[in-house]
């Protein structure tokens, strides 16, 4: 018997291990509360989860396996750490996991990111390559010729500075919104998943948008520009003080130069983040319920949490990457037109520092100049970049959650 005691809450948790009968698969959990003066016993089937035919039940949060389990396998039972999702410890761990996932993914696709920004913003030197399947490789070749490997990663330092807080806040916020809207797995619905993802995306954008704008400007400029010099330049652009009539309700502040395209970004983030988290979660559940061979072997659920939900079985790395890749492709498709408009607004300061152009005006000019096709310039690169980006991001995040004991 293993016993956990908590002096603060006055509760004791005891685990009764299976007997020596090899066919025994039953394990009982007894929870005693000194304050309540009553005992509660919960019985559940414990499996070694090494059976590749194990099936994940979404509603009960259990893994059902055959009854042939030995006492030796049960002796390897690992107790899960149940953490308070509202505690600072849980929030800090999810932020670290999200930040590491974001940096890893963004650095891996940085060259594609820079080429995509050059195409979206219609940079004169690279616009000739846009719209062709080989354009991304030709643009990359030209960048490498003039700036070497460093040129391919120009702006990535700003990306790293931005992506850590961005990804940390996004994943942390998603976990918080998810637990708020769906406290148990029985409360999970597709709509709530989409809402939780959208709110997480908007929250992260609000806090990190200026860093995103600086990154885009660094990637857009074909000349190497010192980071501090560019920040000073953006801050001093006249547009922040010269507001058009329809934006007169906003305060005329120089800091607003760092928020060009912010509303467009928020509007675009709702379908992007919502579709991303929603699709990823749906694909994960699909794998657990219908593709048992995608589950990692030799997993141990430990104890159920206060809602009776067990920890979810982990997917194999290939399956996790596939779920993330599909999520990235779907989210990129539904949000890409708004992303193009946002990029146009972000680089507007480099083209005309005196004028503030709104989202609808930017979209109108783009449509007049290039038609509907103009809203999808660089989408091929978007797929090449976002699919591995989201795949790596979600996979690293899931592995970090396991490493930090928050899975």
TrEMBL record:
It comes from the Eukaryota. InterPro entries: MCP, MCP_dom_sf, MCP_transmembrane. Residues 1-60 are annotated as: Disordered. Solcar repeats lie at residues 89-180, 188-286, 315-403. It is a multi-pass membrane protein. Residues 1-28 have a biased composition (Low complexity). The keyword Protein biosynthesis does not apply. Pfam families: Mito_carr (PF00153). One of its GO terms (cellular component) is mitochondrial membrane. Keywords: Membrane, Mitochondrion, Repeat, Transmembrane, Transmembrane helix, Transport. The chain crosses the membrane at residues 374-397. Residues 29-38 have a biased composition (Polar residues). The keyword Transport applies. It is found in: Mitochondrion membrane. GO terms for biological process: transmembrane transport. Belongs to the mitochondrial carrier (TC 2.A.29) family. PANTHER family: SOLUTE CARRIER FAMILY 25 (PTHR24089). This is Mitochondrial carrier protein. It comes from Linnemannia gamsii.
